[in-house]
Design a protein that fits this description.
Helices cover 37% and strands 16% of the residues. The chain is an alpha/beta fold. β1, α1 and β2 form a beta-alpha-beta unit.
Length: 219
């Protein structure tokens, strides 16, 4: 029985065991995975703040998959099922999302709030091994606000290059964590090596090891 924990939290890039499960097995750690499609960082913050001291004390590594700033901050799981790009809302919750972006959303505030979150999580878990993944390329420039290990490129770049595409709505993507089986395993393998040789700072994944059609997307 594993006595130490691996905590993985973020959005749909870690919503299934896939690479998180393989990573936990490689490191002989107990997996606590809190990933969900469309999840905002506010939900991740709420989850981390709700963990007991016993769970955190026994945590060996924290891996966070940081999402984009423009998602609605929420604790409502139903919002994760809504296509944020839907311009023909029908249900009440779909209309709520539509009108939020039409009348309430403020890009400057959302970016400011996410930067505050990066500083907060870095300070709170500075005593832990913490690995920062970027679901999308837009948060990579903020890596200077993060302590621990920051990993590039974005997971989206791997996901799109796997399909040979320059753009894709990931809402209806059926791939596990938006990656095929081989690339889930490869991501776990490379993260295993990085964590075993853990050194705070910026690192890059070896993209030549991933199964990709081309490199249309680069970040």
């Amino acid at each position: 029985m594993f006595t130490k924990n691996l905590i993985v939290a973020g959005d749909s890039f870690c919503s299934h065991d896939g690479w998180p499960g393989s990573l936990a097995n490689n490191l002989d750690l107990n997996l606590i995975n809190y990933g969900a499609p469309g999840q905002h960082w506010w939900s991740v913050r709420d989850f981390l703040n709700g963990l007991s001291s016993a769970v955190l004390d026994n945590c060996e590594v924290i891996v966070l998959a940081h999402t984009c700033a423009n998602r609605i901050p929420h604790l409502n799981a139903e919002l994760s099922k809504i296509d944020m790009l839907n311009t023909t809302p029908v249900t009440d919750i779909e209309k709520s999302v539509y009108y939020y972006y039409k009348y309430i959303y403020n890009e400057e505030f959302m970016s400011w709030a996410q930067e505050a979150w990066f500083k907060e999580v870095s300070e709170k878990f500075a005593h832990k091994k913490i690995v920062h993944l970027h679901s999308f390329p837009w948060t990579i420039p903020l890596s200077n606000l993060l302590t621990g290990m920051t990993v590039a490129p974005s997971l989206m770049s791997i996901s799109l290059n796997e399909l040979g595409l320059k753009s894709l709505s990931l809402f209806n993507d059926t791939r596990l964590n938006h990656l095929n089986t081989k690339n889930n395993q490869e991501l776990a393998q490379q993260l295993t090596g990085l964590i075993n040789d853990y050194t705070p700072g910026s690192v890059r994944l070896d993209l030549t090891k991933f199964e990709q059609i081309n490199n249309h997307w680069k970040d």
